[in-house]
Each structure stands twice: as C-alpha cells, then as structure tokens.
Amino acid sequence: MGNSGSAVKVCTDHQGGINWLSLSPDGQRLLTGSEDGTARLWSTADSQCHGHFQGHESYITFCHLENEAAFTCSADHTIRKWDVVTGQCLAIYRGHTSIVNRILVAKDYLFSGSYDRTARCWSVDKEKQIQEFRGHRNCVLTLAHYSSRDVLEEEEEEEEEEEKVSRDLLVTGSTDCTVKVWWVSSGRCYQTLLGHTGAVLCLILDAANRELFSGSTDYTIRTWNIVTGEQLKVFKEHQGSVICLELVNRHLYSGSADRTVKCWLVDTGERIQTYKAHKHSVSTLKYHAGILFTGSGDACARAFNSKSGVLQKIFRGHKFIINCIQIHNELLYTASHDGTLRIWDIRGICKRNKRRLKKERCAQGRGSQKGSLSRLFNNKVGCMVQQENRD
To answer: Is there a domain that residue 171 lies in?
Structure first.
C-alpha cells in the first residue's frame, strides 16, 4: 500500500459542511453546495473560487452543474438556477412543500424529489412546473431519467400510443421501499417496482440493457427490467445499508454502511471482490482508470486497485465524513462535512496502475498467442502431445 497522501490544496471558503460536489460536462468548473446556504463555483484550472451564489434561506442539499448554468436545491423548499459567469440567480422554482433533496437536469427538463412525497418536473427556461408525480407514501430520495426510445422496440412503443407526445420517463426511489417509473408527459405511474423492505437510497440506470439497479437500507441491491418491471436479481452479501452505486463495464460497485465496497458481475450476480479498510460507512465512490476511489464517514478517501482489491493509497486530512468525490485531469476532489474542498494529486497511482494494466495486457497477449499455437499443434499431433505430457 502507498503512503498516505497530502492534499495539494485545501479550500476553506464555506462556513458549513459541503453536501455535494458537481463537475461541469466540459470539466472546467466544480460546484459545491453547503450547509451555509450558499454554493461556490471553482475553476479546475487554478482551483480558485470564481463564484459565490447566495439567496437560499436554508442549507443546500444537492447541486448540479452544466457548462453555462448551475442548479441548487435546498431545505427552504426551492430550487434555484444561477448564471455561472455573473453569479446572478436566473430562476427560482417554487412548489415543493418540504425539503428538496435531489435534482436532475435532462434536456430541457429539471426534475426534483422532495420530503413532501412528490417528484416534480419543471421547464428549465420558463421557471414553470410542468408535471407533478404523486403516489409515493414517503419522501423521494433519488432520481433517474431515460427515454423510451432507448429501451422500447417499435411494437412496444405502439402500445403506449397515448404517451407518444413525450417518451421521457422518470424513475424515483423512496423511503416507502418502492421504486416508481413515471411517464413525464402525463405524470402517470408506468411501473411500481416492489421487493425492497427498506428505504431506496440510490439508483443506477443502464438504459441500453434495459436494467435499473437500486440500493437500499434492507442491505440489498436489486436489478430490474425497466420495461416489464420484473425483478431480475438480488445481491445480498452486504451487512449494512447500501449507500452508493457505480456501474462500469458490466461491473457494479456498491458502497455500504458495513464499511465495505463490493464488486459484482452484473450478468451473473457473482460478487468478485470486496474492498475493505474503511473504518466507517462508505458514503461515495468513483471508478477511474482501473482504480476505485472511495469516501468514508471515517473522514478518509481511499484508492484501491479495482481488480485485486489492494488498497493503494489513503488520503487523510478531512475532519468529518466525505460526502462527495470527483476526478478530473488526474486530480481527486473531495468535499466534506467539515466545510472544506480538498484537492489531491493522483498522477502517481494512475501512472503505476497504467503500467500494471499494460503489463497484464502484454501477459494476456502472450498467453493467448501460446494458447493459439498450442491448439494448432494439438489439432495436428494431439496424440503425440498427450504422450509427451505423460512421459
């Protein structure tokens, strides 16, 4: 295992814990949302704060950054849109009657989930509520979005003719133990996915394979067919709530209150790796270039070799739970409830991992070549080879 890392920069501008960290699609900016009721915009080029968004009347629960606009939601029941250049508040979305804890931006839509038991859809530009999704018996904690074009065949789409005005669907996970899929155009519930016996904390969507993954306080992860609503698999080995999920190349990574991350093969349901060493819940995780980065309630971030599970580095310095991590240009950004944004240089472990992957590929190539020659030889003189092996 490598030595403990030290941050190349510590940003202490916030006066309260940082609840979320968002990276813009172009990678040029980061957005932090804080318990102090403000959001701050950071440049990934110089790691300086270039924007301070003030206006919320309570703490910010979540934030989302586009290239030209920033979005924040708050315990003050509102969502705000901000200009990333001027810092001006461009819109306030009002309608929720309790804490707004999650937002999602897709196309021209802004989706939100709240403790008021509803999810809502807003027009990004018109500051107007388009739809309300009502049916959960408790608060909506997590959201996902897809289009039926991504998952339905033509004949299946014809069956949903009334929904053709908009083929967008919203997925919501709730503390009422259910996942619901909604038609955005009508607000009608398309599917209710039943099976969890605890709050649904996280969702990951794989629209191309028609699959949805949900993690819960019932210690399980469940896989669903998002067209039929059928439950496909249940992943049961965690001993605590499943807090976060990451899907990469048909490998599912799950972070849990049991202080571990597990890696599962999606196609078989087999658990192939467990990443230990955390001293508290795993609150966030991110896969990058063959390395699994985690943030924990023990105030440390960690880097694991994703294949072997070996702990490669510990990043120490935060005082409280790490709530979110982002990676850009081989820099690791960690945001914590201690109010700081810390930036870590991960070039060393990335470089070592690339060398290791290159060696493994070369070894596999040599093995494949030997295997091909062996098969050719066996085809020609199989009996002779078998006799030589016995001798």
So the answer is: yes
More confident residue, 390 or 282: 282
H or E segment to which residue 350 belongs: helix 347-390
The SS3 call for residue 118 is strand
Whole-angstrom Cα distance, residue 237 to residue 344?
32
Of 59, 37, 40, which Cα lies nearest the Cα of 48? 40
Residue 179: alpha-carbon gap to chain centroid: 17
Report the distance separating Cα 41 and Cα 5, nearest Å. 25
Query: For the chain, how many structural domains are there in total?
Result: 1
Is the CA virtual torsion 131, 133, 134, 139 positive or negative?
A: negative
Domain boundaries, position 140: 15-150+166-281
CA distances from 377 to 98, 245, 363, 367, 391 (A): 72, 46, 21, 15, 18
Q: Are 40 and 51 in contact (CB under 8 A)?
A: yes
Is residue 84 a part of any domain in this protein?
yes
Task: For residues 160 and 227, give the distance between their C-alpha atoms in angstroms, rounded to a whole number.
Answer: 12
Angle at the Cα of 139 from the Cα atoms of 215 and 225, rounded to 5 degrees: 40
pLDDT in tens, 257-273: 999 999 999 999 999 99
Amino acid identity for residue 276 in this structure:
K
Closest CA to 101 of 122, 116, 121, 83: 116
**How far separated are the first and last CA of the chain, in Å rounded?**
44
DSSP track, 178-193: -EEEEETTT--EEEEE
Size (the chain), residues: 391
What is the CATH number for 271?
2.130.10.10
pLDDT of residue 377: 31
305 in a domain, yes or no? no
Q: How far apart are CA 106 and CA 102, in angstroms?
A: 13
Q: Considering the domain boundaries, does residue 137 fall inside one?
A: yes
Q: Per residue in 176-206, pLDDT tens?
A: 999 999 999 999 999 999 999 999 999 999 9
User: Of 229, 156, 153, nearest to 189 (Cα)?
Assistant: 229
